[in-house]
Write a structure and sequence with these properties.
Layout: H1 5-8, E1 13-14, H2 25-33, E2 48-50, E3 57-59, E4 70-73, H3 80-89, E5 93-96, H4 100-107, E6 115-118, E7 121-122, E8 127-131, E9 152-157, H5 159-166, E10 173-176, H6 182-189, E11 198-202, H7 212-224, E12 227-232, E13 238-243
Parallel strand pairs: 4-5, 4-10, 5-6, 7-9, 10-11
Antiparallel strand pairs: 1-12, 2-3, 8-9, 11-13, 12-13
């Protein structure tokens, strides 16, 4: 599925919809009252929603091509976004997930060669990180956040380390659904000399004791690095940002 019906019907802001008032103090106050981050869409650019309503994100298609360098962290059991990127642009997608159930599911799929799967995760350091299993056995996502369950140690690497190991001088698109690790990763990657052109991220405030203010600080950190929000889902969790300049 290339263009999700839910996105076409206005699930989120972007492509100019709602962008005039999204950054106003009134809009920020309304979002905060709803338990969402105060930040909204800042710039109006043509964007395209790719993937399922669960695992999809908006991208700026004019900035992607067959030669694009795409990293997708947190594959889980939904690679609809990654497959849509491959179908639309014909580029390789490097997908990452260290968690046992995701790896087992990925190994059982008939995936295209253009989706290159790596069995490690993303963190603000190189080594191993402690992950808690999903509280619902039917779910797939392990998390670095504080929650009950027998934790497991899984391999992780910094974004800069991964980029060097893969021999890439740039990252055109970075997608992160990494279950609470995004906050430290954002602090780390914004200190790097090589910044991704587009960042798509799901924030996990409201889970594991993480308040929405932590997400707001992370978005502010990205804004200080010259990123601007061009799409935000109505959930208040999924944001698409463009490096301005």
């Amino acid at each position: 599925m290339l263009l999700d019906e839910r996105a076409r019907e206005g699930d989120g802001q972007g492509s100019g919809r709602g962008s005039v008032t999204a950054g106003s103090s009134l809009g920020a106050s309304w979002r905060r009252l709803r338990g969402r981050p105060r930040q909204g869409v800042e710039i109006a650019v043509p964007s395209l929603y790719l993937g399922s309503s669960y695992g999809g994100y908006a991208v700026i298609p004019d900035l992607l091509s067959r030669e694009s360098v795409v990293y997708s962290f947190g594959l889980g059991e939904d690679v609809s976004f990654d497959l849509a990127v491959i179908e639309r642009f014909g580029c390789l997608v490097h997908g990452f997930d260290p968690t046992p159930r995701a790896i087992a599911w990925l190994n059982a799929q008939d995936l295209p060669k253009a989706l290159v799967v790596h069995a490690h995760g993303l963190a603000a350091f190189d080594g191993v990180s402690s992950f808690a299993p999903p509280t619902n056995p039917a779910h797939v996502s392990y998390s670095v956040l504080d929650r009950p369950g027998q934790r497991v140690e899984l391999p992780v690497k910094r974004l800069s380390t991964i980029r060097r190991e893969l021999g890439h001088e740039r990252i055109d698109l970075l997608k992160m659904d990494i279950e609470g690790a995004e906050f430290d990763v954002i602090d780390d990657l914004t200190n790097d000399a090589v910044l991704p052109r587009q960042i798509l991220v799901e924030f996990h405030h409201g889970r594991g004791g993480v308040p929405v203010a932590v997400t707001e600080r992370a978005i502010d950190r990205l804004r200080k690095a010259n990123y601007r929000v061009y799409h935000a889902r109505s959930t208040g969790r999924e944001f698409s940002l463009l490096l301005d300049g």
